[in-house]
Amino acid sequence: MLRTIDTPIGPLLLTADADGLSRVDFVAIQSGRDEESKGHRETNQVRGEVSGVVNGGIDKRGADILDAAQEQLAEYFAGRRREFDLPLNPEPTTEFRAQIHAQLDTIGYGEVSSYGELAAAVGRPAATRAVGTACGANPLPIIRPCHRVLRSDGTLGGYAGGLDIKRFLLTLEEN
Question: What global pTM score does this model have?
Answer without folding.
Answer: 0.83
